[in-house]
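Re-run with default settings, no changes from the original entry. Doing this only to confirm the output is reproducible before filing.
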Amino acid sequence: MWCRLALAAGTVALLATGCPDVEISTADAGGDARVDASPTADANIDASATADATATPDTGTDVDAGHAARDAYLGLDLAIEKALVLAFRGFNSASSADIDPQMDTGATAGTMTVTGQVDQGASDNKQMRLYLALEGYGDTAGTVYATYPEMLPYLELNLMGIPSGTLAGTLTGRIGMAGGGLSGDVSLDLTITATLEPDPAALVRRVAGTTHVTGSATSIYGTYPVDMTF
């Protein structure tokens, strides 16, 4: 069932007949955004809502909860590697602590933007402190993802012994999703490791095949254990 996924700064349309509007927004005050499941025509994700006010998933007889938990993550699987590519692109091109926003598009819809700060100086050990923004982003047909503007997922990467050496980092945060039979949020808690090598065209890059991502992706459908290498 397709729904409309909306952000405060704009609307990403996922149109379907007979599907209520779903809007992702943030309140003026801080706090976590939650789904307001009131029986109105619009279901809003409102920062003033309580943690228990979450949307009820569409769990028809043809949808297995375990498969849905897996699918909630797999729609972001390619996005993890893409975020790392953008992070290193920003790091290698940085002329100050703040990197220029690095942007790419989803394979099927939307955009991804990485922003933040990186260490400067002569040290062989550097850190990236980055934020990941998704707008109507999708790499597969069906489900699209959008981040909450005031609660962007945080990507922290520690580079040790560059240009050779190792990478250790984390990606944490909540991302809204809609379409393809999925709704609500998926919360990422991921650990990232890799081996580094000199980049002939820049400064440093990951050695192909050494990036290992583990952790969990939790949604209203359950928790999916993540373990992938690329």
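Confidence is low (pLDDT under 50) at residues 1-63. The chain has two helices and 15 strands.
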